[in-house]
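SEVERITY: medium
COMPONENT: batch folding queue
REPORTER: lab tech (J.R.)

DESCRIPTION
The queue accepted two submissions in a row. Attaching both inputs and their returned structure tokens so the on-call engineer can compare them side by side.

ATTACHMENT 1
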Amino acid sequence: MLLPYYQDVLTEAGCDEAGRGCLAGPVFAAAVILPRTFRHPLLNDSKQLTEDERNVLRVVIEREAVSFAVASVCNVEIDKINILKASFKAMHEALARLSLQPQMLLIDGNRFHPYGDIPHTCIIQGDGKYASIAAASVLAKTYRDEYMQGLHEQFPQYGWKENKGYPTRHHRDAIRAHGDTPYHRRTFRLLPDQLSLDEEERW
């Protein structure tokens, strides 16, 4: 069961990102401040949910959150500054868009670049531990999936409607056949010289 908050004095915002491991498209991040009384039986790490469950939760989170915001950093910027810095930048931009400034940040993962003078705590697998981080993971994932489904209409051969830009076998086969697109991350290994079937299929 997810914990409703990390501490009970300061206003917390949970932060998470989606799309770090993709070969194409932006990285998205979300920041969410939930009411301390917020509960929902479906809420969990977005990777543990079905697409339908995430879409249901997105509506609930957007309706009931004290404040939420989503931001993205495009593949061109990712190539310029690297994916880790781009993820932090997307989180910072999401935080800047909140209508209420939080007093503490809960960050999914083990690293973060401080945002102003707001204290933060990094929590490994935090999206499966704290409600606000789980909510941020749901928003980041659903917004990014929606974006990639839109790009799929322009480049249907890459299967982005299904793989969302992750390095599946179909995606890599399409790169081999058609080359890359303006949305591919060219600093990533789009076509590794040696990549096992197991590594491809785990996506």
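ATTACHMENT 2
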Amino acid sequence: MLTLLVKLLWAYTNVVSGEKESIRANILDAAFSLAKTEGWGALSIRKIADAIEYSAPVVYDYFENKEAILFDISLKGFNLLHKELVHARDQFETPEDQLTAIVDAYWNFAFKNKEYYQLMFGVGMQCCGKGQMKEEFSSFQDMLYDCTFEIVKKKGSNPESACHSSHALFSAVHGLISIMMMRNSDIPSTMNKTTLDETVSAFIKSL
């Protein structure tokens, strides 16, 4: 009898847990869908609740506030970006080719996943997450540094310059993407991509 009760309790706990995870996922999916149609700035707990046909208090049972929802979505974006960067890097062996591939993957991710990128880096909006530091945030910068360090070492240059140089490249790449996203109506995409390619090429030569 006791064994049966334990099994029933275990089954009930799993069902409840599964339902909670399902509702939580629905909240995040609804928030992301609303952002794609209306923009992150227009997102609200009330709109999310209406979209999943629950009351606002139900949403608050799962997330403290809207910022907590944005934080979770941004983490998913960083994880997706990290996977694409690793895949791009692993296609090549030399640090020069790896660096070029990583930057291209970052660029492509930004424009294929505009809503994620805007949220992740606060392009045209406030950064989410109440100032919380995300480990995933540094993935791109870390890869840039690793490649830069290897190139510098191979050329016999000062390895201490790798940190500053890789940060400068990150700033340039992120700046080009931000400009493109904020002014895409009057700047041809090919112009900025050409500028990006030239910047990376010049960067490698300068190390």
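NOTES FROM REPORTER
The longest helix spans residues 2-38.
No errors were logged for either attachment.
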